Amino acid sequence: MRNSHFTSLNPENELFNKLKVNNPAWWQFVKENIKQGGFYVDIRKDNSLNIYYNGGSLLKITLSKGTIKGKIHQYYLDIAGSQYIDYGLDRLPIDVDEIKKRIACKYRDTSENGIKARLVCDHNAKYIDSEFAYPEIIGKKKDKYGKEVNAYLITRIDLTKLENAKIVFVELKRIEDGRLLTNKYQNGEPEILSQMKAYHQFIRAHREEITNYYKTLFAIKRDLEILPEALVSTDNIDDYILCENVELYIEPYSSLNPRRTRRIDAIKTILDLNNIIHNL
Fold first, then answer.
1. Over the chain, what HEC string results?
2. Residues 96, 77: Cα–Cα separation, whole Å
3. What's the number of domains the chain is made of?
4. Are residues 110 and 161 in the same domain?
5. pLDDT at 1 over 50
């Protein structure tokens, strides 16, 4: 594996060991909420955890000088400001209802974040990650002080699932998204085509790194007892391979009319012609 951005994820990291061995009350509370379909937890490459509710990053959990620390956005505590601040994790069971209300106000169920959360929390779903991000150095640029710094291209993909012995990336779009169609309808070349092509090239270039990364991530989630319910019976994913094609999940209209039906048909035609896997 060539890129330390992925190899820094360590299943023996002290944070993971402390959570497993000590199993603090607030962590038990988080795991219970995962089972109920409210919370989901993602492991990050820097050996931290993000706890989500309805697509909002409820808490970021890190280890600092041997102590487990939590950070929360000021908005979720009804505090003026736009920063993440230290949060006493033992307070989570007390504060959780008010925090949930404020997250739900910021991320509606129909928002992309809300849709993502609904998909992840479905009891039959096999998603193991969300908001995948991979930065690559593509050159140099000047910062605001005129100093030369690295320029990055960041590849972001919404969801990752396990299916039929494969690791599968999933891109999420709402049906109204302008990138799915041009005003030429079936005769156009919408932005989604170039986006999916770029994903395909990225996966082919980093197949081994990504595959090994997710095998490690799965093992950590299994150890911490935070796997989705549908994956609890899976011991490991050692034989899984990375699917080169990114699937496209499109959140449909809540109701149909002739104009909407025409738009759906046009999108399906373009996606099918370009061999893009989708749910329409």
1. CCCHHHHCCCCCCHHHHHHHHHCCHHHHHHHHHHHCCCEEEEECCCCCEEEEECCEEEEEEEEECCEEEEEEEHHHHCCCCCCEEEECHHHHHHHHHHHHHHHHHHCCCCCHHHHHHHHHHCCCCCEEEEEEEEEEEEEEEECCCCCEEEEEEEEEEEEEEEECCEEEEEEEEECCCHHHCCCCHHHCCCHHHHHHHHHHHHHHHCHHHHHHHHHHHHHHHHHHCCCCHHHCCCCCCCCCEECCCCEEEEECCCCCCHHHHHHHHHHHHHHHHCCCCECC
2. 10
3. 2
4. no
5. no
Please, what is the average pLDDT of the chain?
Answer: 95
Q: Which of 116, 267, 74, 97 is nearest to 185 (CA)?
A: 267
Q: Rounded distance, CA 66 to CA 43, Å?
A: 19
114/134 same-domain check: no
pLDDT tens-digit map of 225-253: 999 999 999 999 999 999 999 999 999 99
Give CA–CA dist 211/1, Å, rounded. Answer: 10
Give residue 3's pLDDT band: very low, low, confident or very high (50, 70, 90).
low
Q: Which domain holds residue 193?
A: 124-280
Residue 57 confidence (pLDDT) above 50:
yes
Nearest 5°: the CA angle 225, 226, 228 is 120
The CA-CA-CA angle for residues 103, 109, 113, to 5°, reads 70
Give the separation between CA 221 and CA 266, rounded to whole angstroms.
40
Same domain? 20 vs 60 = yes
Determine the average pLDDT of the residues in 47-58: 96
At 118, which amino acid appears? R
